[in-house]
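Friendly challenge for the regulars: who can give me the structure tokens for this chain first? No prize, just bragging rights.
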Amino acid sequence: MSIKTLSTVPLIHPTAEVRDSRLGAYTEVGARTRLLEVALGDYSYIVNDSEAAYTTVGKFCSIAAMARIKATIPWAGRRSRT
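First reply, four minutes later:
Bragging rights claimed.
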């Protein structure tokens, strides 16, 4: 069993996909996790099989396995009538 050590350089699993994102100090991205335009605050981590897109995660946050976080943009010009 290997012991992983976090540092100011983010720890990204080799199977993770991180694009256009900013990772803080002492952060970790787990196996098979996908990040797209995400800001991950210091001391936060997101574990295996998760997805996050277009969002900001604060400091000291932990995101569980298989979680999906997606900031959506409301449909422009589409209005509901009741």
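Residues 45 and 62 are 5 Å apart (CA to CA). The chain has a mean pLDDT of 88. Your move, everyone else.
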